[in-house]
C-alpha cells in the first residue's frame, strides 16, 4: 500500500495548512470549525454512517461496537445533558474513568457543546485529582461509582465550584449533586445542533507537570483538529477501512489526540481496550481485531521484548502494516527488535502535551535511522538552539546538542497555561516555543532526543512533576523535607525516587520508609508515588534555597557531580 506521504522533503517544502483545512467540512453555512463535527457528524452524515467508529473490548473479552451514526446520537444526547445542567460555552467538563465508552461520548459531546473537555488518569489518587479539578475550575465531573467512592468523595467538600458529578454506572441519583448519567442520557434528545464555533474556541485542557510548581493546564482550541487530521493521514498513514489501536490511556494527551480524535476525524475504526497491559491479550487483539496501524509506547515495547513470545509464529499478524511509538526515547535496539519481530516499520515520533499533536516523526516513506525521532511534520518548523533569558541562537552545526525549539503557528500549539500567563510567556522567545527538551539534528535533518532540560520525570511514559510529589511527602507527620528525582530504570524508563529528611525525633528505619511510601501511594496513586525512598541528613540546595535535584541524581548514579551531561542520555 502506498503511503499517503510519499516524499517527505518535497511535501515539506510545498505544504500549507489551508490545504488541509480545505479537506475538512467546517460547520454548515460557514459557522466555524468544531472538532466533534469533523470527527463524528461529518461521517455520520455520509458514507461512513454505518462504519464502526469505536470497537470496545471489555475486560471480560466481550465486544461493544459503536458506529459513527450511534456515536453521533450518543454524543448529541450528552451535549443535551450538559445543556440541561446549565453548562455554558467554555465551562470545563472533566472525566475520571478507565477506558469505557462513556469517556469517549463525554469527550465528544462536551466538544459539541463548546465546553472544554479535560481527562484525568484513572490511576490518580485523591490529591492529584483535587489539584487538577480545582485548578481547572471543574463544573462537571463524569466518573464511575467505584472511583467516586474510592477517590472523589473524600475531596468533594474542597471543591465548591464542582456542581455536578455524573456516575456512569448507576440508575439512581445519589443526591442533587451526584447524578446518574444513564438516567440523564435516557431523557435527553439525540438531536443536537452544534453552535457556531470559532476555531480559536477552547476545546481541550490537559494537565502536565512542571518542576517548580503544581501541574499546569495546557489549553488547546478547536483549530487543533487540523494537526490531528494531518498527522493521522501523514504519520499514522490512515487509509480507508483501517483498524487502528492506540494503547495510550485517554487520561493523557496521546490517548485523547490519538486515542479519540485523530482516528475518528480520519474515519477509521478505533479499537479501545478496557484492560491493562497483558502481552498475550495484546497479541491476540492485534490478531483478532485485524489491527492495521498500532500506536504504542517504549515502556510497552520493552515489556514485550522481555517476554519469551514469538508473535509472528504464534499469532497471525498479517494485517499489521505499521507500528508507531511515542512518549519516551525508543532506543535503536528496540527499533531493530520491532522490525525483526513484526516485520513492519516501527516509527518513533515526538511531541508533548503543549504541542497537542505529533511534531517530529519517522514517516512510512522515509528511511528510518534507528534511535532517531525522525523529521519535522510538514507545516512545523523545528530546530536546535541555544536559549538565553532574552532570546535564542539557532545552532547550525550538525550534531551539536541544544534546546529543541518550535516555531509558533501550527494549529495545535497550546494557547495558554490556565490562569498562568507568566509561565506561558516564559516558554517563548519571540515566535519560538522552548520545548524543555534537549536534542540534536544531524546533517540529513533527522532529530535525536538527548533528554529533558529540567527535572521532570517520565515514568512508564507518564510525566511526573517532582514538586507535586515533594509537596505530598512533606504532609507526612515525620517528614521535614523531601526531594524527588527520576532514577533510570530498564523497565519503566525512570522510577520516582524520593530523598527524605526526617523531623527531629523520628528514627530512620524500614517501617517508617514503608509507611511514608504507603502514605504517598494512598494520596497520589501508584502511578505518581515514589517507588524508592532514602533517608538523608539534609538536601543539597542552591544559595537561594532551590533543591539541587540533579546533584542528588548524580550522586545516586555514582556520576561526577560537576559534569551532569552524561545524565541526559535518557
Ligand atoms: P507529555 O507532555 O506527557 O506527552 O510528555 C512529553 C515529553 O515526553 C517530551 O517533552 C519528551 O521529553 C518526552 N518524549 C515524547 N516523545 C518522545 C520521543 N519520541 N523520544 C523521546 N522523548 C519523548
Description:
The protein has 570 residues and is α/β, with parallel strands linked by helices. It has two domains: 8-437, Rossmann fold (3-Layer(aba) Sandwich), CATH 3.40.50; 457-569, ANL, C-terminal domain (GMP Synthetase, Chain A, domain 3). Helix content is 30%, strand content 24%. It is built from 18 helices and 28 strands. Strands 2-1-11-10-12-13-14-15-16 form a nine-stranded mixed sheet. Strands 17, 18, 19, 21, 22 and 23 form a six-stranded antiparallel sheet that branches. Helix 3 (35-44) crosses helix 5, helix 3 packs parallel to helix 10 and helix 4 (68-84) crosses helix 5. The longest helix has 17 residues, at 68-84. Bound molecules: adenosine monophosphate. Residues 208, 253, 326-329, 348-350, 352-353, 373, 435-437, 449, 452, 458, 463 line the site of adenosine monophosphate (AMP).
Structural class determined from secondary elements: alpha/beta
By CATH, the architecture of the largest domain is named 3-Layer(aba) Sandwich
Q: What fraction, in percent, of the residue positions are helical?
A: 25-40%
Number of domains as seen in the coordinates: 2
* Number of E strands: 28
Any descriptors?
570 residues, alpha/beta, Rossmann fold, GMP Synthetase, Chain A, domain 3, nine-stranded mixed sheet, six-stranded antiparallel sheet, binds adenosine monophosphate
Amino acid at each position: 500500500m502506498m503511503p499517503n506521504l510519499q516524499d517527505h522533503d518535497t511535501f515539506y517544502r510545498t505544504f500549507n495548512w489551508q490545504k488541509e483545512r480545505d479537506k475538512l467540512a467546517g460547520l454548515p453555512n460557514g459557522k466555524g470549525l468544531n472538532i466533534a463535527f469533523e470527527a463524528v457528524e461529518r461521517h455520520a452524515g455520509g458514507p461512513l454512517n454505518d462504519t464502526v467508529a469505536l470497537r470496545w473490548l471489555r475486560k471480560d473479552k466481550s465486544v461493544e461496537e459503536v458506529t459513527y451514526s450511534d456515536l453521533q446520537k450518543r454524543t448529541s444526547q450528552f451535549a443535551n445533558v450538559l445543556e440541561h445542567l446549565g453548562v455554558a460555552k467554555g465551562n470545563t467538563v472533566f472525566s475520571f474513568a478507565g477506558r469505557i465508552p462513556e469517556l469517549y461520548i463525554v469527550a465528544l459531546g462536551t466538544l459539541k457543546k463548546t465546553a472544554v473537555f479535560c481527562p484525568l488518569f484513572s490511576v490518580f489518587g485523591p490529591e492529584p485529582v483535587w489539584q487538577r479539578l480545582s485548578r481547572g475550575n471543574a463544573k462537571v465531573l463524569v466518573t464511575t461509582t467505584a472511583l467516586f467512592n474510592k477517590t472523589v468523595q473524600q475531596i468533594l467538600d474542597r471543591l465548591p465550584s464542582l456542581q455536578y458529578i455524573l456516575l456512569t454506572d448507576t440508575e439512581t441519583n445519589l443526591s442533587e449533586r451526584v447524578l446518574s448519567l444513564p438516567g440523564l442520557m435516557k431523557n435527553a434528545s439525540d438531536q443536537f445542533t452544534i453552535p457556531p464555533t470559532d476555531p480559536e474556541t477552547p476545546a481541550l485542557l490537559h494537565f502536565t507537570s512542571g518542576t517548580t510548581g503544581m501541574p499546569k493546564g495546557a489549553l488547546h482550541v478547536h483549530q487543533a483538529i487540523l494537526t490531528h487530521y494531518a498527522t493521522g493521514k501523514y504519520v499514522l498513514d490512515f487509509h480507508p477501512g483501517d483498524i487502528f489501536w492506540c494503547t495510550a490511556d485517554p487520561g493523557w494527551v496521546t490517548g485523547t489526540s490519538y486515542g479519540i480524535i485523530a482516528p475518528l476525524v480520519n474515519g477509521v475504526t478505533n479499537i479501545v481496550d478496557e484492560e491493562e497491559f497483558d502481552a498475550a491479550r495484546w497479541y491476540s487483539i492485534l490478531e483478532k481485531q485485524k489491527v492495521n496501524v498500532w500506536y504504542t509506547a517504549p515502556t510497552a515495547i520493552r515489556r514485550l521484548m522481555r517476554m519469551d513470545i514469538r508473535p509472528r509464529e504464534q499469532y497471525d499478524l498479517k494485517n499489521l502494516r505499521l507500528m508507531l511509538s511515542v512518549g519516551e526515547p525508543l532506543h535503536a535496539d528496540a527499533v531493530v527488535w520491532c522490525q525483526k519481530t513484526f516485520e513492519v516499520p516501527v516509527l518513533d515520533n515526538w511531541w508533548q502535551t503543549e504541542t497537542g499533536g505529533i511534531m517530529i516523526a519517522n514517516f512510512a516513506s522515509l528511511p528510518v535511522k534507528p534511535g532517531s525521532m525522525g523529521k519535522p511534520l510538514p507545516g512545523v518548523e523545528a530546530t536546535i538552539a541555544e536559549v538565553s533569558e532574552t532570546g535564542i541562537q539557532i545552532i547550525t552545526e550538525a550534531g551539536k546538542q541544544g534546546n529543541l525549539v518550535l516555531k509558533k503557528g501550527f494549529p495545535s500549539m497550546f494557547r495558554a497555561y490556565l490562569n498562568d500567563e507568566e509561565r506561558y510567556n516564559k516558554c517563548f522567545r519571540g515566535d519560538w516555543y522552548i520545548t524543555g527538551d534537549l536534542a540534536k539534528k544531524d546533517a540529513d535533518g533527522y532529530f535525536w532526543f538527548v533528554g529533558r532540560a529540567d527535572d521532570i520525570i517520565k515514568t512508564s511514559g507518564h510525566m511526573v512533576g517532582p514538586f507535586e510529589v515533594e509537596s505530598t511527602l512533606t504532609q507526612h507527620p515525620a517528614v521535614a523535607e523531601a526531594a524527588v528525582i527520576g532514577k533510570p530504570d530498564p523497565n519503566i524508563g525512570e522510577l520516582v525516587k524520593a530523598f527524605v529528611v526526617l523531623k527531629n525525633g523520628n528514627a530512620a528505619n524500614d517501617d517508617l520508609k514503608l509507611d511514608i511510601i504507603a502514605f504517598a501511594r494512598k494520596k497520589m496513586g501508584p502511578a505518581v508515588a515514589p517507588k524508592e525512598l532514602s533517608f538523608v541528613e539534609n538536601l543539597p540546595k542552591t544559595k537561594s534555597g532551590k533543591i539541587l535535584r540533579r546533584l542528588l541524581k548524580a550522586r545516586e548514579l555514582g556520576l561526577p557531580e560537576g559534569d551532569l551531561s552524561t545524565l541526559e542520555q535518557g
